Amino acid sequence: MRKSTAKKRILMPDPKFGSVLVTRFVNNLMLDGKKSIAFKVFYSALDIIDVKLEDEDALEVWEKSLENITPHVEVRSRRIGGATFQIPQPVREDRRTSLGMKWLISAARKRNEKTMAVNLSSEIIAGFKEEGAAYKKKMDTHRMAEANKAFSHFRF
Questions:
Q1: Is residue 71 assigned to a domain?
Q2: Cα separation of 59 and 103, whole Å?
């Protein structure tokens, strides 16, 4: 039997934009507890976006990109009668944003450009334009859920 569910921690909004979502993103971006470096990388990525897309606000581009990357359905494995089925399920709001952030960061890390800020800005712009590795991952997840729609009656 599981213990009680973990309590949600209240995050402080980031110093520049006053957004809790930005803090959440930076916490995912952070490596080895180096939050100040993660903030520098994120803010410099937004500066690069400002330069590349003059007519758009960088924070709005990031939010739209994150919205484009977040999945709405996912598949979960369930073992029924000796067979394992991939069952499509809707994603909770909190998990949805978390998955979108993680996919965006991992896709940025896999890019082969000069610095992490450049990688991150390129991936954010790609997500904004509905292309790139993170957006492709979302589409693959949706496609897999669509293909396994026949098993949705096994939902638990």
A1: yes
A2: 18
Cα angle: 91, vertex 94, 99; to 5 degrees: 70
* Residues sharing a CB contact under 8 Å with residue 7, sequence separation 6 or more, in sequence order: none
Structural domains in the chain (count):
1
- Cβ proximity of 99 and 24 under 8 Å: no
Cβ-Cβ contacts under 8 Å for 103 (sequence gap 6 or more): 69, 134, 137, 138
**14 part of a folded domain:** no
Residue 57's pLDDT is 87
| Residue 87 and residue 152 in contact, taking contact as beta carbons nearer than 8 Å | yes
Ranges of residues in the chain with a pLDDT under 70 are: 155-156
pTM for this entry = 0.87
- Tell me how far CA of residue 113 lies from CA of 35, 37, 97, 110, 152, in angstroms: 22, 18, 26, 9, 41
CATH number at residue 142: 1.10.455.10
pLDDT on residue 145: 87
**Residue-number span of the structural domain to which 94 is assigned:** 20-154
**How many Å is the Cα radius of gyration of the chain?**
18
